[in-house]
User: Fold this.
Amino acid sequence: MVKINGKDVDAAGRTVADYLQGTSYDPRRIAVERNGDIIPRAQYGETVLQDGDCVEVVSFVGGG
Assistant:
């Protein structure tokens, strides 16, 4: 299991890109952190989530 934004998700073995495809996140407007490190957008397709990882997906919201 991978903890994503505080919830246990069965995403171990999947890439970040694969996980994001099944969500409503806009990949152009998010940042992904895994175990305290920011994952560069260019590495979403090659970064494989491992059992026990802690991931935070943060959406950027415009406003004024």
Helices lie at 16-21. Strands lie at 2-4, 7-9, 30-34, 37-39, 54-59.
